[in-house]
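Researcher: I'm preparing a figure for a lab meeting and need a structural model of a single chain. I don't have an experimental structure, so a prediction will have to do for now. The sequence is pasted below. Please return the structure as tokens so I can convert it later.
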Amino acid sequence: MKFNTKTIHAGVFPDPTTGAIMTPIYQTSTYAQSSPGEHKGFEYSRTHNPTRSQLQDNLAALENAKHGLCFAGGMAAIDAVVKLLSPGDEVISTNDLYGGSYRIFTQIFASYGIKFHFVDMGDLDAISALVNDNTKLFWVETPTNPLLKIIDIKAVSIIAKQANALLCVDNTFASPYLQTPMDLGADIVMHSVTKFINGHSDVVMGALVCNSDDLLDRLSFIQNSCGGTPGPQDSFLVLRGIKTLHLRMQRHCDNGRQVAQFLADHPKVSKVYWPGFTSHPNHDVAKAQMNDFGGMMSFTLSGDSIEEAQAVISKTKLFTLAESLGGVESLCGHPASMTHASIPKEEREKAGLKDSLIRLSVGIEDVEDLIEDLRQAIG
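Model: Understood. Here is the structure written out token by token.
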């Protein structure tokens, strides 16, 4: 089944009771049992819910995986992955990553005896140099947030397998439309479903997919025991959003390409971070492991000052200044003071994240209107 068909049909089926084409919202906390332990596969909605089950199956199919699990947010999904580890275990992570991931790694799990190494994962030798007997997890985010660095998933998977460690890929920026890390050697793929997958800025949710039955059992146990599960209303909204994922992503990519080129040609823009440019350091890797280059990008202005950046984002009319990304509407943000504020300034700068950086999530509006909005804001 091709991807565009999967978004509409994979893992979902008409309601067996009524024949309803759309998956019903099973708004219930508990289920009738004919006798203790005798039921129709559902006991309690923290453990299983029919609406969520169809969403989980659909997400697994989109990522070419066997199993899917949904969580109350992307952070709850990350939390579940790290809970696979034990005190003394070590994690090797990209050093350019979402601020919330950095925060939970360093301010929550480091306190429980898990050690985190942050490294430029474009340098495979630097990754290998950090591997030791305690290495149990590799955390890859590609494209990275917010510098759009591209990490070679297949190459890192080889290092992970040699270390007998798990590889988890945060695929939020790409979505399964652009990239399927399971096909490149990942053990787990993580999504902030809030973003492109749902695509309408009205749901907070996370997800994990995997092929291993053992990983499914362990992650399901964590999901149920720790309780970070989404409700059926949100599951329904995401199922509905996914049905247009392929259409939305096509427009995100088309608009992104034109906006990135406009910025690159603008005399007041000093640098544009977008993997579709042949000048991008890992463009060839992006071209090999992605189907297109997406609508996420960042840029700096020639003045390279935080005041100049803040002046631009305060003038936009269609690009709304807001947290998050991946919705149908265009958003702009200032990572240093918003999404990545939890990362110390020296660590941000070490990874190349300047205080003057502006991040764009290019939506699906008419691209000429978006370019005109940026033109008047930049001046």
